[in-house]
Amino acid sequence: MPDCELLSGCIFFNDRMANMPSTSNVFKMMYCYDNFEGCARYTVRKEAGKESVPEDLFPNQIDKAREILDKR
């Protein structure tokens, strides 16, 4: 599977995770380089647009992503 198309512009990894490199690397391996379609941030962005993705949404918070999408 190719890398996530949104990785280079993902503020979560480029800004929010800068002080947590180990955690960031684990999430990147799990979501950005493998299962990006399972990423909560990717899901919200694709369904509702960039402006709908909360800054503090972690990639593994798919339940929270579904709540965001259900409220639309």
Q: Can you summarize the main beta sheet?
A: none
Q: What is the straight-line distance between the termini? A: 30 Å
Q: Outline, from the CA principal axes?
A: globular
- Secondary structure tally, helices: 4
Total strands: the figure is 0
Q: Short summary of the structure?
A:
With 72 residues, the chain is mainly α. It has helices spanning 11-16, 21-32, 40-48, 62-70.
Notes on the structure:
This protein is mainly α and 72 residues long. Helices cover 50% and strands 0% of the residues. It is built from four helices and no strands. α3 (40-48) runs parallel beside α4. The chain starts with 10 loop residues before the first helix and ends with a helix.
Secondary structure: elements and pairs:
Layout: H1 11-16, H2 21-32, H3 40-48, H4 62-70
Main attributes of the structure:
72 residues, mainly alpha
